[in-house]
Design a protein that fits this description.
198 residues; Aminopeptidase; globular
């Protein structure tokens, strides 16, 4: 699914893939890939800590939606009792996070998932996703898990979700103003994505 028309000035294009899982996978949990790896829930997560996680994890992949979100709106989401934020720590240092959104009955959505750049490539991603899938299904009444990824994300993200048991169900092409040209994200972020034409 591609769009051939020229992009508007200062815009980039991405293809979003939506995936779902309709039953708990029957497989053994992955072992922790590194020593001194811990996972803690960020209970009553503060706005400043959440923005640190979101901005640091998402910077290389041009995550911009919640950077634009007003503080009050974002605070309402992350402090909702049906939204769970779990942070992976490697030897006491934040290595990544996963956000499970259970606000819709019967659904657990992996709203955000990713690693701090210095921890990519150490096997933490598959381990954290494996844990998140198990946690997602652990609550009574869950009938489906969902997640989405896009062509701006890590090139192995889609394959990792599929290996975890998610199946693609639809795609959507989106054009967005390049956040590097608006000053929302540093201009040197995401060198794998060409800058939108100015």
């Amino acid at each position: 699914m591609t769009i051939n028309r020229p992009l508007p000035p200062r815009h980039i294009r991405t293809t979003i893939t939506f995936l779902e899982m309709l039953e708990r996978p029957a497989k053994a949990r992955l072992p922790a890939p590194v020593e001194r790896l811990a996972l803690l829930r960020a209970e009553h997560c503060t706005l400043s800590f959440y923005r640190y996680l979101y901005n640091t994890v998402g910077g290389p992949w041009l995550w911009e939606m919640r950077r634009r979100m007003p503080d009050d709106q974002l605070r309402t989401i992350i402090q909702d009792p049906n939204v769970e934020i779990f942070v992976a720590y490697a030897a006491g240092v934040p290595a990544g996070y996963v956000e499970l959104d259970r606000r819709k009955q019967g659904l657990c959505d992996i709203a955000y998932f990713g690693l701090i750049p210095e921890f990519i490539g150490r096997g933490i991603g598959p381990w954290l996703l494996d844990w998140a899938v198990e946690a997602g299904w652990s609550v009574s009444g869950v009938e489906k898990m969902t997640v989405n990824t896009c062509t701006l994300d890590h090139p192995k993200a889609l394959l990792m979700y599929q290996r975890a048991g998610f199946k693609p169900v639809r795609q959507l092409v989106r054009e967005l103003e390049d956040p590097r040209l608006t000053g929302l994200i540093p201009r040197d972020a995401a060198p794998h994505v060409p800058l939108g034409r100015e």
